[in-house]
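# step 3/5: fold
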Amino acid sequence: MTQSGGLQPADFATADYRSVLRRLTTLDDEAATLRAEALRWHDERLAAAEEAVRSASAAVEDAKREVVAAQRTIEEVDARAAGLWSEYVHKVGPVAERYGRMVPPAVIPQQRNNRDATDYLDEVATKVKYTAPARPITGGVKILFAVFGFLGGIAGAFGNQLLRQTGDGAADGTWKDALPVVALLVLLACPILAVVGAKRVADRRGAGLDATTVATVMITGLVTAGLLVAALRTT
């Protein structure tokens, strides 16, 4: 052997039998020590490998759970985005059709700060729920609503007069007997329809139609209708 402390070939020529046995015993002990160290190293490597496998398995399970959680989050975000889009379409009406009838794909803006998707959804929800305050009714709008009442009164008066003329002298038990009642209903209904028309215009202009404005339209329509009916009956 060539190891340090081992026997050299020349040692067998000079050493006695007892020293050779003692040296062989020492070599046997050294070999046992080396075998023990090798077994210990093997056991340590095996334990380290098993620990690495356990760590890798745990990491795989964690990754699977994160994938499931991420998929669930994606589904929740898509569902909320679809709900916000439906709410937006319901709020703005036909204007949203130019963007398509289907829900557009959700896209998170590319910004420097890494924000969560729920932050963008909350921001969109706030914008969708926002309703601009009604603009005050100015003098020009009031005149426009008065014109609605005036036109409603004219329509009611002429409809009333036409129906009354058709039903005059009709007492034969036919449908013409009810024309005077229908004429009265038309006289009252036209100013009400004028209020409906004024409401639609107010909604388009973002102006609030309060009780005073409704009364203005109604009174203008009824007064106009009454004056025209009285004038037509005197002629």
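# step 4/5: annotate
The helical segments are 11-14, 17-92, 117-129, 139-167, 179-205, 211-234.
# step 5/5: archive (pending)
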